[in-house]
Amino acid sequence: MTPPDAPHNRWSDLDRPPLNVTALRRGLLRPDALWSELEVVETTGSTNSDLAERARSGSLAEGTVLVAEEQTAGRGRLERSWTAPPRSGLFLSAYLEPGDVPVERWGWVPLLAGVAAATGLAKSAGVDTALKWPNDLLVTVEGEERKAGGILGEFAGDGIVVGLGINVSLRADELPAPTAGSLALAGAVSTDRETLLRAVLRSLEHWYGEWKAADGDASASGLQAAYTAGCATLDRTVRAELPGGNSLVGQAVAIDGDGRLVLSTEGGLQQPVSAGDIVHLRGAAGGLT
């Protein structure tokens, strides 16, 4: 084991080998593929910030993917930080230009990335990955739901940058919070990051293609049904902590056509929530979550 004060290098943790960018490019960059460029950097502050800056300067092609072995200023939703040891996860961002898809439907892109990540990881890691609305990836560790990943989308240039952070090999003593988890702790059959990254990006390419072909219609593309099927928030009593400091408690009953979470509140009113932090209060069986 590497002493805590030892300098970091490519071989300081042999359980976490560096990504092979040549092999990744060979498998993902094809003439007919969505992915046009793939870069792996040793460290950066935030892959989302890096791509967003390039997009705003007009120097970014659709399908550009930036992967970091380590992020020092990774960002989650609501400006939360995201940190993890080097090469312990997948830290990446991709630039997409939905083009003729109406801009009001672009809000589905982060949810689409969630479906893509969950389905890709289920196949490649053998881990049942659920979605917490709007953009968290959940796994089960010792019978408890834990957050193993998150997604962040932001408009930039003529498109949208979507970032994914996924804990792959984090050990229990490396978790940033008691509510966090990793694929390894959830019993993944594979923690090979190249295999997982290829699976996630291929899944993202598939779902993005289906969504664009349907002109961004989440129902017609099957995206709304897929998100609903994989969403662990539905059928639970939740508290929505809304922008501005207000909150709303109700049962999560649906994901509507705009990607909003619909809560059934006291008196039978149905209230759509478009933004906010969701706290799972009770599961369908009534247990605290």
Written description of the protein model:
This protein has 289 residues and is of the alpha+beta class. The chain is built from 5 helices and 14 strands. The strands form 3 sheets. A 7-stranded mixed beta sheet has the order 1-2-5-9-8-7-6, sandwiched between helices. Strands 13-12-11-10-14 form a 5-stranded antiparallel beta sheet. The chain has a two-stranded antiparallel sheet with strand order 3-4. The chain is globular, with a radius of gyration of 19 Å. The two termini are 36 Å apart.
Largest sheet: 7 strands, mixed
Helicity level:
10-25%
SSE series? HEHEEEEHEEEEHHEEEEE
Mean pLDDT across all amino acids = 91
What's the end-to-end separation, in Å? 36 Å
Proportion in β-strands = 25-35%
- Tally the helices: 5
Query: Cα-atom Rg, whole angstroms?
Result: 19 Å
- What's the total number of strands? 14
Enumerate the strands of the largest sheet in spatial order, edge to edge or round the barrel: 1-2-5-9-8-7-6
Structural class assignment: alpha+beta
Low-confidence stretches: 1-11, 285-289
Shape descriptor: globular
Question: Brief overview, please?
Answer:
The protein is α+β, with helices and mostly antiparallel strands. It has helices spanning 21-28, 47-56, 108-124, 193-213, 223-230, and strands spanning 37-41, 64-68, 74-75, 81-82, 89-96, 130-132, 136-141, 144-156, 159-167, 237-241, 247-255, 261-264, 270-273, 277-282. The strands form three sheets. A seven-stranded mixed β-sheet has the order 1-2-5-9-8-7-6, sandwiched between helices. It has a five-stranded antiparallel β-sheet with strand order 13-12-11-10-14.
